[in-house]
Amino acid sequence: MPHLFSPYTLKGVTLRNRIGMSPMTMYRSKDGKMDDFHLMYLGARAAGGFGLIYPEQIAISPEGRTTPHCAGLYEDAQMEGHARVTSMIRNMGSVAAIQLGHTGRNGSEVKPWVANMLGRQLSPEHPEGWQVVGPSNVPYGFDKRPYPVHELSKDEIKGLYRKYADTARRAAEVGYEWLEMHFAHGYLGASFYSPLANRRTDEYGGSLENRARFLLESIDAVREVWPEHLPLTARLGADDFNPDGAIFEESIEVVRWMKEHGLDMIDLSMGGNTDNMEAAWFGEPASWVERGARVRQDVGIPVTVSWNLGVPQNADKAIREEKIDLVLLGRPALANAHWPVWAARELGHADPFSLVPEDWAWWLRNFRGHEASIGWPAVHPQPVHSQPGQAKPAELMAGDD
């Protein structure tokens, strides 16, 4: 039976455990470059035991960034920073993953703590702003993204495929071993997929097949240049939680088409194409796990999800019951760079310090005069939030990792 600390192999890559750090925007880049901050931030999580490490969404073009302060890999000059990061992640025992994306109509934004809200958009005339693009001239709206959207021509769409491919080529050259395409959270791929944002009447709009065309052709473009032995995955906005938007039942069929186009794993999330969401249950613990299990069974493709899996027992249960294959953590990874070690102690792993570099591990295992004084949270006598099927201490033996 697999568990949270079991190795996981996809194509030619093996992760040391089933715990990944989700891509999260840091707003720390200048001219799209990654620097010492990213080396520190990402290296710390790799040293903390995560098996898979994503930076933020990496833009395929300048106008594909969320803000002027977000990272990209659309120029060769940006490669050095990425190469430093992938080298650090690899040296700390993790696998470096990259999420490629274009923010579409949701780009040109202000840092959220400056705007005091998420998603406040800069006008195209602002010195740091730009003209946002999308499948149709349909602004996101809701008083935060009100500006007109440039409707992409067919030639411009083909140009984006080339940018996806060029960025994927650079990603392989700088040492990434796992690639995810971002088709969720209201960004360009999600906009093409959702009727809320896509009003086109040509082959890129209307029917489900047409709305999925941009996603599938983008995958084709990347598949041509991305090494076959390395995983190619995608994050899909599988549900807009709005009857006029993307619908989960249709998304199952789209995932099946993605698999036929060479996708190796699907990462399920929300569409994010509107603030007007109905019955949005993704705030519940482990909220996407059951839908992940449905796709895993119906399509026969490996699945990962995020959203509220920061309780170790919930994460471990999802893996043990084989509902999903990997757990992705966002805010828990921000809050605790050593979340995997904490989770291992909570779940009764026989050697939780095996997850950190061996020099640290040696000191943490030895010369401990007082258990609670070494700086780790105390271990609960019984696992918290106990659920049927969760890990028992005796099941997590030293040889399992």
Low-confidence stretches: 381-401
For CATH, the homologous superfamily is named as Aldolase class I
Strand order of the largest sheet: 3-4-6-9-10-11-12-13
The helix/strand class is alpha/beta
According to DSSP, the number of beta strands is 13
Task: Report the biggest beta sheet as strand number plus sense, adding barrel if it closes.
Answer: 8 strands, parallel, barrel
Could you tell me the CATH topology label: TIM Barrel
Discrete helix count? 12
The CATH architecture designation is Alpha-Beta Barrel
Indicate the mean pLDDT: 92
Distance between the termini: 13 Å
Number of discrete domains: 1
Which CATH C-level class is it? Answer: Alpha Beta
Strand content: 5-15%
* Cα gyration radius (Å): 21 Å
Share of helical residues: 25-40%
Taken in chain order, the helices and strands follow as EEEHEEHEHEEHEHHEHEHEHEHHH
SSE map:
Blueprint: E1 8-10, E2 13-15, E3 19-21, H1 36-47, E4 52-53, E5 57-59, H2 79-91, E6 95-101, H3 112-115, E7 133-134, E8 150-151, H4 154-173, E9 178-183, H5 188-193, H6 208-225, E10 232-239, H7 248-260, E11 265-270, H8 289-299, E12 303-305, H9 312-320, E13 326-329, H10 331-335, H11 339-346, H12 358-365
Parallel strand pairs: 3-4, 3-13, 4-6, 5-6, 6-9, 7-8, 9-10, 10-11, 11-12, 12-13
Antiparallel strand pairs: 1-2
